[in-house]
């Protein structure tokens, strides 16, 4: 297993990522330039539908970047490329300076272990209790003794406020608790990069706020590069260091959170205000 902690730097780079036009191979041969993941000219089509159409975005090491965008614009497809579950038609995804698709299958598999993913519904196994769900990645991917696993899982469950739910099955707990259990499981391998696919979906505003606080707290505690896909402006405001807006398979805005909130950019303004009039249409 790769050393999940040492590769992550301590501070945010002062310079935000370059979201301009680039070609594969540009400036990626050496190191990461403070970027955990670099997405370069990414294209992906399904049949005749061009989903990603030359997407460029870099994810700053140790920062929380939120990706906003209308439904169907390719946010989940982007996350799947980042973790190496989808192969680009064109372009590159470099993780800590390595193009995922230049790696051997074994190396790619090791690379995937540097990611944690929190799916919309927590993606818990219904047949296992919460403890076993959280322990699953450790049992599958490591040689750890059961006593070590117990200690780690107990700590992670305490951090997400689920100590009392360890023996419950997923169908015995609420949607918010499932998300927290999914979060504990995503953290258990000490990932360098954590991907959240709409962590707030299906939660009421109070539980959304509590989950956001937890994301911020866990990031402060464990560090790492967090990428949060959401439609929720309150989530964006609460958790983000940087904000990107995706539309029609391209990045149409990128900036630090405070700038995004004050931005006059028409894409950002329309998304933040939920206005039906503006550049973001149904097509
Ligand atoms: N494996 C696939 N095969 C065919 N089409 C796909 C596949 N995966 C995604 N798509 C299509 O790509 C488009 C973008 O999907 P994606 O799930 O990335 O959107 P999204 O921006 O995450 O939307 P939402 O906010 O609604 O979750 C959609 O039209 C979707 O149907």
Automatic annotation (TrEMBL):
Domain ABC transporter span(s) in chain numbering: 37-273
Keywords of this entry: ATP-binding, Nucleotide-binding, Transport
Coiled-coil ranges per UniProt: none
Domain of life: Bacteria
Keyword Membrane: no
One Gene Ontology molecular-function label: ATP binding
Entries under PROSITE patterns matching the protein: ABC_TRANSPORTER_1, ABC_TRANSPORTER_2
Pfam (any one): ABC_tran
Region Disordered, residue ranges: 1-31
PANTHER family: INTERMEMBRANE PHOSPHOLIPID TRANSPORT SYSTEM ATP-BINDING PROTEIN MLAF, PROTEIN TRIGALACTOSYLDIACYLGLYCEROL 3, CHLOROPLASTIC
Protein known as: Phospholipid/cholesterol/gamma-HCH transport system ATP-binding protein
């Amino acid at each position: 297993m790769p050393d999940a902690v040492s590769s992550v730097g301590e501070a945010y780079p002062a310079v935000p990522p370059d979201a301009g036009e680039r070609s594969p191979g540009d400036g990626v041969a050496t190191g990461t330039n403070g970027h955990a993941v670099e997405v370069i000219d990414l294209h992906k089509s399904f049949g005749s539908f061009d989903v990603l159409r030359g997407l460029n975005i870099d994810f700053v090491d140790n920062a929380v970047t939120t990706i906003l965008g209308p439904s169907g614009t390719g946010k989940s497809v982007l996350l799947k490329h980042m973790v190496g579950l989808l192969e680009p038609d064109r372009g590159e995804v470099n993780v800590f300076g390595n193009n995922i698709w230049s790696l051997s299958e074994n190396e790619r598999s090791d690379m995937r272990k540097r990611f944690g993913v929190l799916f919309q519904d927590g993606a818990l196994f219904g047949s296992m209790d919460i403890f076993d769900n959280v322990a699953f990645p450790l049992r599958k991917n490591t040689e750890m003794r059961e006593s070590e696993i117990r200690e780690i899982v107990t700590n992670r469950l305490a951090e997400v406020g689920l100590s009392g739910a360890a023996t419950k099955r997923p169908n015995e707990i609420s949607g918010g608790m499932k998300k927290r259990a999914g979060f504990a499981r995503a953290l258990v391998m000490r990932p360098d990069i954590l991907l959240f696919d709409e962590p707030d979906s299906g939660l009421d505003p109070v539980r959304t706020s509590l989950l956001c606080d937890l994301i911020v707290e866990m990031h402060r505690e464990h560090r790492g590069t967090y990428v949060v896909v959401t439609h929720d402006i309150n989530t964006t405001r609460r958790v983000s260091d940087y904000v990107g807006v995706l539309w029609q398979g391209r990045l149409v805005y990128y900036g630090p959170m405070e700038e995004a909130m004050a931005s006059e950019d028409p894409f950002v303004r329309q998304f933040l205000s939920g206005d039906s009039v503006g550049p973001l249409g149904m097509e």
